[in-house]
Amino acid sequence: GASRARARGTRGGGRGGGRRRGGGGGGAREEEVPSQVSLQQVTAGKEEAAAARGAEREGQVEEEEESEASEASEEGLEARVPRKDEDELRNLDEGLVLEPYDWSEEVQKQQEQQLRAELLEQYRALVVERGRYQRYNIYLQHKIFEALRKKKGVEAAAEAPGGDRGAEPEAPEKEQAYLRHLAVLEDLRKQEADDLRWYHHELDQLKLQCQEKVSRVDKEWRRFQALKKQVVMQAMGSCWMRGGRQVALREVEQIQALEDKKEKEMSAVRLENVQLKQSLVHFETRMRTQEDLTEGLLLIDFEQLKIENQTFNEKVEERNEELLKLRSKVTNNVQIITHVKEKLHFVDIENMCKKAELMDIEAQVAQKRDILTKTKQARDGLRLDNIRLNQKCGLLGKESLLRDMEEKVDRTEVLNQRLASLKHHHAGLVLSCKGVKQKIREAKAFLPS
Question: What are the residue ranges spanned by the domains of the chain?
Answer without folding.
Answer: 2-146+177-310, 400-449
